[in-house]
Amino acid sequence: MMVFFVVQSAFGKLDQPLLLDMEELKIQTATAADLEAVTALWLEVIAEHEDHHPIFQLDNQKRGEVQQVLLQRINAENTAILLAMNENIPVGMTILKMETLPNVSPYSKKGYIAETVIQKEHRSLGIGTFLVNAAKDWIFSQGGDYIELQVSVKNEGAKRFWESQGFFPSTLHLIHLPED
């Protein structure tokens, strides 16, 4: 099933293009037919983060498995990959997942925003905000109680962006790698 969200303002559909060459921005749920685009955008996320920490580095021997992993995510229950489309060309993506936690708190259904990217040439044009709003809509429509995400501590721009979208630090995620 393909779902479209048309960019709207508080005053209805935008009369003028949001971006230089588009009349409307669409957000669609990725399908297997979008695998090439999803893969290219996912690899862009990895390329931008590989200098941040070893966990972000792609094992070149496993590069061929990337599409298989992404296809599994496209087809997985409780998961959605949303694509930001500019004139039917994917320019951004976010991967979403729902998780049910033990019912011991009022917040037992977590929505998780994973890899999120807007192509460099399309940044600072409002696409990220529309993609995040679509992600929030999807998560809350699935019964999510709250949304969680992680940001590289070295990615200052992403930290500012997510905070501008209403997200705030809650916990500190620490990693330990075995010594060689």
Mean pLDDT: 83
Q: Strands across the major sheet, in which order? A: 1-4-5-6-7-8
Largest sheet: 6 strands, mixed
Instruction: Assign an overall shape.
Output: globular
Instruction: Give the C-alpha Rg.
Output: 17 Å
Low-confidence stretches: 1-22
Oligomer: single chain
Question: Secondary-structure map with pairings?
Answer:
Layout: E1 4-6, E2 8-9, E3 12-13, E4 25-29, H1 35-49, H2 66-75, E5 79-86, E6 89-100, E7 109-118, H3 127-141, E8 146-149, H4 156-164
Helix pairs in contact: 1-2
Structure characterization notes:
Strand 5 and strand 6 (89-100) form a beta hairpin. It is globular, with a radius of gyration of 17 Å. The chain is of the alpha+beta class. Helix 1 packs across helix 2. Strands 1-4-5-6-7-8 form a six-stranded mixed sheet, sandwiched between helices. A two-stranded antiparallel sheet has the order 2-3. The chain has helices spanning 35-49, 66-75, 127-141, 156-164, and strands at residues 4-6, 8-9, 12-13, 25-29, 79-86, 89-100, 109-118, 146-149.
Any key phrases for this structure?
180 residues, alpha+beta, 6-stranded mixed beta sheet, two-stranded antiparallel sheet, 4 helices, 8 strands
Concise account of the structure shown:
Helix content is 27%, strand content 26%. It has 180 residues and is an alpha+beta fold.
